[in-house]
Amino acid sequence: MVAEIVCVGTELLLGQIVDTNAAYLSQVLASLGINVYHKSTVGDNLERLKEVIRLAASRSDLIITSGGLGPTMDDLTKEAVAAAFGVALVPDPESERRIREFFAHRNVPLAPSNLKQALVFEGGMALQNRHGTAPGAVLEKDGKIVICLPGPPRELIPMVETQVVPFLEKKLGSKRRILKSLVLRLVGIGESLAEQKVADLITGSNPTVAPVLSGYEVHFRITASGDDPEAVDRMLQEKKQQLCARLGDYVYGFDDETLESVVVRLLTEKGLTVSVAESCTGGLLGHRITNVPGSSKVFLCGVTAYANEAKTSLLGVNRETILSRGAVSEQVAREMSEGIRRISGSDFGIGITGIAGPEGGTPEKPVGLVYMAISDQNGTQSYEHRFGGSREDIKQRAAQTALDMLRRKLIGAGG
Q1: Same-domain pairing of 297 and 406
Q2: Which residues contact 389 (CB under 8 A, 6 or more apart)?
Q3: Which of 175, 192, 225 is the last residue of a domain?
Q4: Distance between CA atoms of residues 371 and 7, nearest Å
Q5: Which runs of consecutive H residues, i.e. helices, occur in 86-222?
Q6: Are residues 60 and 146 in the same domain?
Q7: Among 313, 302, 311, 357, CA closest to 334
Q8: Exposed, middle or buried by CB within 10 Å (0-12, 13-18, 19+), for 105?
Q9: CB atoms < 10 A from the CB of 121, how many?
Q10: Among 21, 172, 219, 375, fewest CB within 10 Å belongs to which?
């Protein structure tokens, strides 16, 4: 079965509301083994709505709409579907009863327009809304299924979980295919180079492999389908092993793992601790680490030493180093990492200093130049990086790179 999602509302096109329904519906459909090949967003216009519904019906077996089921003149989803499929809208007694009770319970006058929400497709069925006044509606015609859902997530999600999923499971019956995905999460490599390394491994149709740029990381999503759960799992694991063998230490985790959670796990497993001294990242590295539950066992201390005086008085950075080499220099990063490790007693110390911009750069030291260092009982290693983008981009990329620097140290990889 192939599905299509149609999100309705001019406010979505204007960017006034962020559409989270489509992502949720896609996940639900994937869990049922239903492929979603298209998603559309359309405003509150009857003609354009009909056009989108007809197009969806021409290429999909299942159409799910969200939004446009309210009582106002611009709530036109059911009208558009009815017109596109040539069916009438008729009152649903149960929906009308619930709407009347809803208003009576709140002692609010019932406007005639509210009863418009009780209309359903002739020959179809209603989906009762226990969290609002807009019932959903289901139409089956010409081998197609249309499911109309309300827009507010607090109404849509319970309706999907309690009514739509059981309905679709019954429809699929023994035809239900298993669809599973697995995500490889990479750090320290760009999308183009990552894809180049595995180009011959991502051309198949089952499983499929799709590279996705997510924030400051590259992800590879592996998706396999079939009738046998064990066979599907086997396909996923085989492709995962092939990709990991090719991509090596660039792969830091899988599925919902974050880079900071992996770092905290590795520190915990090895019984090691870390402290950080930050300048240009403004505490972002420490913030990311301490967002992980259990990080208190491995994170001892974080110092944001923005001013030169703070670097010298708090971290013991040599004043002469700053005067001779500048606050943004490899030697200052080294002394910051050694200083924070010394005062905290942690196994690892990390120091970061750089120019986040948009001002402050020079031809010799441009915006985006960041030095970072990591020290332990065996000595100190330091690195120079040049990051692009906005001030926020540079801070995020620096924190991400510092986490990866520590991860590589923990797994014994080259860094």
Answers
A1: yes
A2: 368, 397
A3: 175
A4: 46
A5: 93-105, 153-159, 165-172, 191-197
A6: yes
A7: 311
A8: exposed
A9: 23
A10: 172
Q: Among residues 113, 145, 175, which one ends one of the domains? A: 175
State the CATH number of the domain containing residue 44: 3.40.980.10
Alpha-carbon Rg for the chain, nearest whole angstrom, is 28
Average pLDDT along the chain: 96
C-beta separation of 131 from 158 below 8 A: yes
The predicted model gives 321-326 an average pLDDT of 98
- Counted residue by residue, the chain has a size of 415
Give me the domain span that covers residue 207.
178-254
Output the pLDDT for position 414. Answer: 57
CATH number at residue 310: 3.90.950.20
CA dihedral over 232, 234, 237, 241, signed as positive or negative: negative
Which of 264, 285, 267 is closest to 350 using CA atoms?
285
pLDDT of residue 147: 99
236 lies in the same domain as 268: no
156 and 40 inside one domain: yes
- When pLDDT is cut at 50, 70 and 90, the band that residue 395 belongs to is very high
